[in-house]
Description:
Helix 1 (5-12) packs across helix 7 (222-240), helix 2 (51-65) runs parallel beside helix 5 (185-194) and helix 3 crosses helix 7. Strands 4-10-9-5-11 form a five-stranded mixed barrel, surrounded by four helices. A three-stranded antiparallel sheet has the order 1-2-3. A two-stranded antiparallel sheet has the order 6-7. Helix 4 (166-174) links the parallel strand 9 (148-155) and strand 10. The protein has helices spanning 5-12, 51-65, 118-130, 166-174, 185-194, 214-219, 222-240, 245-249, and strands at 15-22, 28-34, 37-44, 70-78, 88-96, 100-102, 107-109, 112-115, 148-155, 178-182, 200-208. The longest helix is centred in the C-terminal third of the chain and has 19 residues, at 222-240. By secondary structure, it is an alpha/beta fold. Helix content is 30%, strand content 25%.
Amino acid sequence: MTALPVEHAAVLEHLVDVRPHRHRSGTVFDVGTVVGHPGHRVAVVETGAGTTTAAALTERANAEFTPAAMVFVGVAGGLRDWLMIGDVVVATKIYSYQGGRSEDDEFLVRPSAWSVSHRLDQEARRLPRGDAWHSFLPDQVEGGAPAVHFEAVAVGDVVLNSRRSELAQRLHKSYNDAVAVDMESSGFAHAAHLGDQVRAVAVRGISDFADGCKATADREGGQLLAARNAAAFAIALITALEPDDDAAGGNEPPPSPVPTIRNKNIARDNARVGQQNGVNFGSFRGFR
């Protein structure tokens, strides 16, 4: 699952032989295979921002493809000064922070939370050890590859662009272990949890610091860099899973009358933002 066009495009850079798959209700998935890994088939959809559509289309994708795993990939705002633009955060815990009870003089938080699939968490933690995932990065950047962090994230239907707002203070006080914020992961996680416990993980690239300077960071390329780095890590994670023998062995359905999309996007300009080193997408492997 991806929320934004930049995140969707970042995933497609890693796929070949991409074909549109049209759901009977109108949703269009792009289905292809990972470059150099014909046994790993991926379906990608762009949901738009927000938890509600993320949840609805996660459920739709799960029912349509019965995937071996689902990944939501995209950008996030960082809540820690030690993060860098372009760093990758694998969400070990996903908070839905908007639930609560409003009293006259206080807001009592009543959050929901979901943990990452243990199997995907274990595979993801192996990737940074040997740095093999770096080969999936779009280019080599001065200063080395982005860091990968395994941390909690907080999610709500709000663009947070302040460290001093009431919401920022609430997150600091009640969700203190969350290192980043986004707008889709909780809807995705909830739908995956209800979908017969399908394996699911959210992978996010840090595009800004939720500090009032989001527009500047986006103009300087932070969003593009974060989307590409998150997509690279997610694709590396997908290829670490067992391949789909049907996809590699030629048991494909008859060709679609719709022409195949030969993606020729080339990642460029994966440059550093200022002095900092640097898409949302759901991947589905092993259709059954």
